[in-house]
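Technical annex B. To support the medicinal chemistry partners, we prepared a structural model of the target in complex with NAP, based solely on the information shown next.
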Amino acid sequence: MRMRILVLGGTWFLGRAVVEGALRRGWEVTTFNRGRSAADSPGVRPVRGDRATAADLRRLAEEGPWDAVLDTSAPGIAPEAVRAGAAALEPVAGRYLLVSSAEVYRGGGAGPRTESSALHGDGGDGAGPRAAAAEGAVGGLFGAARTVVLRPWAVLGPGEYAGRLEWWLRRARRGGPMLAPGDPGRCVQPVDVRDAAAFALRLAADGGAAGAYNVVAPIGRETMGGLVQDCVTVTGRRAVPRWADGAVLRAHGVRPGTELPLWPGGDGGRPVSPAAAHRAGLVCRPLAETVMDTWAWLESGGRPVPHPRHARQGIAPEKEAAILAALAAER
Ligand SMILES: NC(=O)c1ccc[n+]([C@@H]2O[C@H](COP(=O)([O-])OP(=O)(O)OC[C@H]3O[C@@H](n4cnc5c(N)ncnc54)[C@H](OP(=O)(O)O)[C@@H]3O)[C@@H](O)[C@H]2O)c1
């Protein structure tokens, strides 16, 4: 069946991978964005507009109907705009797939988080509460049977705009002793952008799919130590990781999340269970392959599109050197 889909966003990273995957499947793809971030992929039917403008949403709805809406830009915009968009599209779309985030889960508790773990409440700032509000808005309008929610942790791979893997790769290429964060055995659960896109398209085509899915790598398969070592290996084995305890990094004022990318601070929090997504067909390639392909993309001149929502990644070389010197003096 030739699917008709609408991608809200569609020009950057995951959105672009979804669009290109759909075009490869021979689907009819409409995109909706402001035309600011990057050009649309050739072959789509672009509709220009702002998600925060009611008249633009009405004009978009007139371009329907669609079998499915894939929303890759919701957590970046106000929950009221997500609600207004879902209200405008509900009469002309079969189902709504929302890319949310694993940050939607509230802290506390024990064991891996599953799709039924407690979420942030509505209200409040930050990625988690905004994603929770977006999920509530869409579910309220499309109903449980027509809503699919995807919750990735970190999405990595060629084209990544946030620059997290890019920073580790370039740092490893620079060589020498390299500061590495926390416990090398800490479980990380990134998903490759191509695997997340393939899963989203699979669910878009499945009329019976509904509910929330954690779109993450299997628990315990990938570690921060493995990620750092993969970066060292593909860039020519120039760097030597020096692992520093989280408490030491905090004492030196290292900012979690950005200065040493993919280090969340603290003990790293609880893992997220991907069991439901894996049962529904998510296949996660090994992280080593994502690292290798991202390096190949950078080496061939690939450059991320600057993203206003993402802070610059990476620690200043002088700050890193000072911490490494302090660590060496302690040993
Ligand atoms: N990367 C990660 O590690 C990660 C982790 C968890 C969840 N996620 C979520 O996964 C999704 C990834 O999507 P993505 O990679 O394609 O990136 P994205 O940065 O969310 O894409 C933004 C897209 O939406 C459009 N857009 C932004 N504001 C708009 C507005 N007001 N009206 C209309 N269009 C607008 C942009 O185009 P214009 O600027 O031209 O309008 C662009 O096409 C995001 O929702 C993100 O929050 C990502």
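Notes passed to the chemistry partners:
Residues 9-15, 33-37, 50-52, 72-77, 99, 101, 152, 154-155, 162, 307 surround NAP (CB under 6 Å).
Residues 127-142 form the longest helix (16 residues).
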